[in-house]
Specification:
- The chain is α/β, with parallel strands linked by helices and about 290 residues long.
- The chain contains 8 helices and 8 strands.
- The strands form 2 sheets. A 6-stranded mixed β-sheet has the order 1-2-3-4-8-5.
- Helix 6 runs antiparallel to helix 7.
Length: about 290
């Protein structure tokens, strides 16, 4: 049936661009659009999360991996990083600031890793050529409730937890509000991710990071893109509301007709329950 033309008010609740923090998906994406900025940010995150130096890397912002065929789910990585040793691909990093559903995180992490592996191993290559896979998730919530700034997840032998099952996979979950574990430098970085303000800059590297973020926030084209994005989100919310409302009205009419409720009573109930005018109620009734 045709949609009702009744105006639906959608209050805009999104934050202005200037108030976004680096953990917000949009700001992180635009701050890593330039390759040199993406490389700097990737190195900063990796080195402070792993406490190891990285040297020769290539970075692909917002890398997309398609599913194994047209009917399977693909993924988009916020930062995909390859680290080379002696010209050999040694490690792959998937860096993901994540503010989405915490319940989905374990399976989402699993799927990202499996699909990445499929793309890394060509036909005829030995399994031992697979590089190490390290995913780094930056989270505004504590995934394990232990107040740590870093949780390292690897596979182990269940009967002997002290035995590491070395399949080359490691997952690092960084909680921006954590107090335990990690280093002061990691803590400062995570604090800046959660509150990207000048007052939270504590060293030269964060100073450079802050300059990248501020350039993104004050870029007119970025501002236009952000407003367009928010308008699209508002439109989708409105459409979803109207679609759900229309489905509810149609279901009500069908049920009422099954009970042989007179049309006059159906119209009355439509106007009361769904705040419709008589003209709108009649249009719905005629369409059903």
């Amino acid at each position: 049936m045709n949609k009702s033309y009744k105006t639906v008010s959608c209050k805009k609740t999104y934050k202005p661009l200037q108030e976004l923090n680096l953990i917000d998906a949009f700001l992180f994406a635009v701050s890593t659009e330039k390759i040199q900025d993406a490389e700097f940010i990737a190195k900063l995150i990796i080195e402070r999360a792993t406490n190891e130096k990285v040297d020769q890397i290539t970075v692909v912002p917002e890398k997309e991996l398609t599913g194994i065929d047209i009917g399977h789910h693909g993924i988009r990585m916020d930062l995909y990083v390859e680290e080379y040793e002696d010209r050999r691909l040694a490690k792959v990093y998937d860096i993901e600031p994540n503010k989405y559903n915490p319940a989905e995180l374990p399976m989402r992490s699993r799927y990202s890793q499996s699909l990445t592996d499929v793309k890394l191993l060509n036909s005829g290559e030995a399994y031992e050529t697979l590089p190490e896979y390290i995913s780094i998730w930056i989270l505004p919530y504590d995934p394990f409730g232990k107040n740590r700034m870093i949780y390292t997840v690897k596979n182990v032998v269940e009967e002997f937890p002290e035995l590491l099952y070395n399949d080359g996979v490691k997952r690092l979950f960084l909680y921006v509000g954590g107090e335990l574990g990690g280093t002061e430098k990691l803590k400062d970085l995570l604090h800046y991710f959660s509150s990207s303000k000048k007052g939270n800059v504590t060293d030269a590297e964060l100073e450079h990071l802050h300059s990248i973020v501020e350039k993104a926030k004050h870029n007119q084209e970025v501002g236009k893109r952000y407003m367009t994005l928010q308008d699209m989100i508002d439109y989708e919310k409105k459409e979803s509301y109207e679609d759900g409302r229309n489905e509810g009205i149609s279901a009500f009419i069908s049920f009422a007709k099954e009970l042989n409720v007179p049309n006059d009573e159906i119209l009355k109930q439509l106007m009361q329950k769904f705040s419709l005018t008589m003209e709108e109620a009649k249009a719905y009734l005629d369409a059903n």
